[in-house]
């Protein structure tokens, strides 16, 4: 084979390899970093129980989060006034 033909063949192989690498990297990136985490459902009642337990000193935030299934960030936001009080929540 002539040098030009070998060059064309190797360039096409390199092109395919680069495309495969890009596809693999993008699929990995979107499946691990771009996908949202599944949130466990929790009720307003669970939120209120968790907040009451924290405010009374019976549980720490991480313990209440685990026990009642409410995300720690949600508890933090409610305790620090970052969200408006929900129905039935003690604002005092």
Walkthrough of the structure:
The chain is mainly alpha-helical and 92 residues long. It has 2 domains: 1-35; 39-92, Homeodomain-like (Arc Repressor Mutant, subunit A, Orthogonal Bundle), CATH 1.10.10.60. The chain contains 4 helices and no strands. It has helices at residues 3-34, 44-55, 61-68, 72-79. Helix 2 (44-55) runs antiparallel to helix 3. The longest helix has 32 residues, at 3-34. It is rod-shaped and about 85 Å long. The model has no long low-confidence stretch (mean pLDDT 82).
What is the compact description of this entry?
The protein is mainly alpha-helical. The protein has helices at 3-34, 44-55, 61-68, 72-79. Helix content is 65%, strand content 0%.
Question: Which percent range describes the beta-strand content?
Answer: under 5%
Could you say which overall geometry the principal axes of the C-alpha atoms support? rod-shaped
Number of helices: 4
Number of strands: 0
CATH superfamily of the largest domain, please? Homeodomain-like
Task: Give the averaged pLDDT, no decimals.
Answer: 82
The whole-angstrom Rg is 27 Å
Helix content estimate: 55-70%
Q: What's the number of domains?
A: 2
Measured between the Cα atoms of the first and last residue, the distance is 85 Å
Low-confidence stretches: none
The CATH topology of the largest domain turns out to be Arc Repressor Mutant, subunit A
Q: Specify the CATH architecture of the largest domain.
A: Orthogonal Bundle
In CATH's first tier, which class of the largest domain applies? Mainly Alpha
Which series of helices and strands comes N to C?
A: HHHH
For the biggest sheet, the summary is: none
| Class from helix and strand fractions | mainly alpha
Q: Which quaternary structure do these chains form?
A: single chain
């Amino acid at each position: 084979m002539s040098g030009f033909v070998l060059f064309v063949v190797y360039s096409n192989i390199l092109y395919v390899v680069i495309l495969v690498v890009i596809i693999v990297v993008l699929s990995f990136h979107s499946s691990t970093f771009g996908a949202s985490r599944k949130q466990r459902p929790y009720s307003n009642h669970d939120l209120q129980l968790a907040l009451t337990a924290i405010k009374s000193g019976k549980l720490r935030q991480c313990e209440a989060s685990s026990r009642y299934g409410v995300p720690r960030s949600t508890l933090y936001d409610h305790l620090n006034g970052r969200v408006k009080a929900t129905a039935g929540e003690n604002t005092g």
